[in-house]
Hints:
By secondary structure, this protein is of the alpha/beta class. The protein is built from twelve helices and 13 strands.
Amino acid sequence: MSDPTAIPATGRPVDDIMAEIDAERSDDLDWRGGKAFSLVYNAADPELDRLHHAVAGEYLHDNALNPFAYPTLLRMERELVSMAAGLLGGRPRAGALTSGGTESIFCAVQTARDVGRDRGVTAPNVLVPATAHPAFSKAGHYLGVDVRRIEVGSDGRADLGATAEAIDDDTVLLVGSAPCYPYGLIDPITDLAALAADNDRFCHVDACLGGWLLPFWEELGEPVPAWNLAVPGVTSLSADIHKYGYTYKGASVILYADRDVLERQHFIFDDWPGGLYASATTAGTRPAPPIAGAWATLQHLGHDGLLDKARVVRDATRAMLDGIAAIGDLHTVHEPEMSVACFTSATRSIGAIGDVMDDRGWHLDRQQEGLHLMVSPGHAAHVDQFLTDLAAAFDNHGEARDSMAAYSGTADG
Ligand SMILES: Cc1ncc(COP(=O)(O)O)c(C=O)c1O
């Protein structure tokens, strides 16, 4: 028997490898079945799926490290940034495509840190609400920036008073989410941005989750407080196309109110024998499929397609939240402003309810305070089954198996 942790001594035929993968994939998250509530934004759109496979195959080996070698990718990237800017209140050339929300957030923290250095800040700090994504703390960890998490108010949103008090000479950036991942709440962006501007600081809106959905949510007539780059004082914004823009993984945008700040993100180096090396984001080699995939997705869906999907998500979210509220004492921890929510019970073990749902094939992430829902179009056809199973789980569950609140992991444990 060969050692599966070592490179095989002789190569294996394609069919053999694919058969092994197929056999083992049954243990992987089955998002196509409509029972998973994180990690994948299931557009439930076979034509879009077909497009994704075709585009990814077409660009499989191309490398956008040097966009000038690929005029098609350069054009797509520029058009993507323009489309995002048009949607999100930005400027056509004041942004870049990144590999995801984390990279966009890294860029925002890096540029704020470096502009802070111009006014002599040597030990920069960034103020984020406690609900902000861990990517800010990760960016701080890598970039030598002290990311301070400020307790949110009782409404679950950024606490303006506490944030104002926390600003000091070394603060380079204030952050708000639109919405935050744990509860689906939009921080008071107008006030946060005004606070930042009054203090001559930067303000980043993390719209990784909402950037490609909230504009359509508004268009559907849902109440959405001001949240994008058009808000005075907002200096940068991140929005992931690989979330509610329905492209496959590896596409987000970081946008700036001022193109000069984008330039602080660029890295240009010629002190090696290999010639001038320039890059616009943290990556070196950049896979082309996510760029082409994001572009093709927006071409295929168009504004109408995104609006239609938003409607499906909105209706499914409403049906789910209304249904949840009708089961025993289940309730959302905070009333969400989009399609993402945390729900719990005061009388039953929510972990035990989650266990029964796991046993019935659902995948609801555990948070500290409850179970997490992130609704995508693929859930619409499964709302009734979800609510039936949840009601049964509420009525009949054992002790919690103690699944810990976890969002992700590392390959070595
Ligand atoms: C609000 C928010 N910000 C940032 C991120 C990080 O995005 P990514 O996982 O694409 O790096 C996420 C991911 O879910 C998110 O929900």
